[in-house]
Specification:
Radius of gyration: 26 Å
Shape: globular
Structural class: alpha/beta
CATH architecture of the largest domain: Alpha-Beta Barrel
Number of strands: 17
Distance between the termini: 90 Å
CATH superfamily of the largest domain: Glycosidases
Mean pLDDT: 88
CATH topology of the largest domain: TIM Barrel
Strand order of the largest sheet: 15-14-17-12-11-10-1-13-16
Number of domains: 2
Length: 496
């Protein structure tokens, strides 16, 4: 009897094991919410409408165009991009191979000055869609020529391997042809070359993340000079073609800038200064959990540029990839607080969030944190961006505000140019605060004037929906708001 029971048990184990092998079950990994920090209290916020700080920066750049990565699946995203004020679109990293140099110039032995050597029809569709919404088109000139230079397939094959080929670094004997192809693509976009256009593209970026993450997937951080030589050839060729085109480089990640063996940030800037190379925007990437971590990296970059004095005084800064994964309401507040902190980042003019559309190789998965899903439906973060866009439109002049807590709670205030309105945006990602106490002073109207206040919230239940309205008289407004993270709250004060 016992032997029969054992036999039956063994049979069941084999059957279950066979079933698991036939249909492997992978646990779904959900992004975790961060733990609360700080005290159970009301965070003080003070806004002074008399202290102007310039204009609120539009930092709504995205990876992936209004013509989406999967155009046969995802609808045109142009109107959605316009509503949140997308001002720069970066391509092609993460997009289909039709945007890579390896596809555009498929035969590495072909004549780079012959229009017949190029395949630009698909590239044109993406470029024109970006310019049609009035956004700047930041094109990455990546990577190598010929079909073997299709970096997407190289990267996927090499991921996790040892001894990765140097796919991002052009061999010295091919440098002239590679830079010529880069320039001819720009001529196609701007000068009508090869049945091209006059799109007025004024920004171009060096190859994406030449050191690519923690495993040296593209090139060894211990020997960066070959990458800098490649950049030198690229920058000089672009500058010789058109001095008005802004050159973005070198896409260093926060991992690169924390590398202990060599200071890659200093190495690149030293090389630029030593060889008198063109550089208009220093670009960096990061995927960090706390908004303050982004601010810390931005300050590090600004200080590094400042050390060179007048030699690099003209260089501005752009973050050309950033984001993190969290549950939707936390993610919306994370992104909003980060963009608020970026307002004060040294020299920063652009921030490009990864990404706007749904990336083709994540189309059926759960990995994408895109602003718009494969059906073009907005995420909760989209509504937080919509709050930022409405603030910039209604109250574009930035005014002084205190309340940022140097962690994940952000405050941004603005006023209308004619003094008819003031707005305050508050974003709390994961503090333990009970809410905030707000005081707005020196509002730009008379003591006898009346005003209204409307509040709109993005949180777990609401998508930028009005939650209350109040009225008052005079030039000051005070409020105690009980509200728990995560949320984004936009308040608009208008003279009546």
């Amino acid at each position: 009897m016992r032997s029969c029971v054992r036999l039956l048990a063994a049979t069941l184990v084999v059957a279950v094991a066979g079933s698991c092998l036939a249909q492997p079950q992978r646990p779904r990994r959900r992004p975790a919410s961060p733990a609360p920090y700080g005290d159970d209290r009301y965070q003080p916020i003070k806004v002074d409408c008399a202290k102007k700080l310039g204009r609120i920066k539009n930092l709504m750049g995205v990876q992936g165009g209004p013509r989406p990565d999967v155009p046969e699946v995802t609808p045109d995203l142009s109107e959605a991009y316009r509503k949140i004020g997308v001002n720069m679109v970066r391509l092609p990293q993460g997009n289909r191979d039709v945007l890579f140099l390896g596809y555009i110039f498929p035969d590495e032995k072909a004549d780079p000055l012959d229009p017949a050597s190029y395949r630009l029809e698909e590239f044109d569709k993406y470029a024109k869609a970006v310019r049609a919404i009035g956004a700047e088109f930041l094109w990455e000139a990546q990577y190598l020529l010929g079909e073997k230079g299709l970096f997407r397939s190289e990267f996927l094959r090499a991921r996790g391997a040892v001894g990765i080929p140097h796919r991002a670094v052009v061999p010295r004997d091919e440098m002239k042809k590679w830079t010529t192809v880069c320039v001819q693509v720009l001529r196609h976009m701007n000068d009508g070359w090869a049945n091209g256009h006059h799109l007025g593209v004024t920004t171009v970026e060096f190859i994406n993340e030449p050191f690519m993450g923690p495993k040296h997937l593209v090139y060894d951080r211990d020997d960066p000079v070959r990458v800098w030589e490649c950049y030198a050839a690229f920058a000089r060729a672009v500058r010789a073609y058109d001095p008005k085109i802004k050159i973005f480089a070198p896409s260093l990640t926060d991992i690169d800038m924390r590398y202990k063996r060599i200071d890659l940030l200093k190495s690149f800037l030293d090389y630029v200064v030593k060889h008198n190379l063109p550089l208009d925007y220093f670009t960096w990437h990061a995927y960090l959990r706390e908004p303050q971590q982004y601010a810390d990296v931005a300050k590090k970059v600004g200080k590094a540029l400042d050390r060179y004095g007048r030699r690099l005084a003209h260089v501005r800064v752009a973050n050309t990839e950033w984001d993190s994964r969290f549950p939707p309401p936390v993610h919306a507040a994370h992104n909003t607080t980060t963009l608020i902190y970026f307002q004060d980042a040294p020299r920063m003019d652009y921030a490009i969030r990864y990404r706007g559309d749904a990336r083709h190789d994540h189309i059926r998965g759960r990995r994408s944190a895109s602003v718009l899903d494969p059906q073009g439906r907005p995420s909760l973060t989209y509504y937080a961006y919509l709050a930022l866009a409405r603030q910039r439109k209604a109250t574009p002049e930035r005014i002084a505000a205190t309340g940022n807590d140097a962690r994940a709670f952000g405050v941004l205030a603005g006023r209308a140019g004619d003094g008819s309105a003031v707005s305050v945006l508050v974003s709390d990602m994961h503090s333990a605060y009970r809410g905030f106490e707000l005081r707005v002073e020196n509002m730009p109207w008379r003591e006898e004037d009346e005003f209204t206040v409307e509040a709109y919230v993005v949180d777990e239940k609401r998508k930028l929906e009005k939650v209350w309205n109040k009225s008052g008289r005079g030039r000051t407004f005070s409020l105690r708001e009980t509200r728990h993270a995560p949320y984004v709250l936009w308040m608009l004060l208008k003279r009546t």
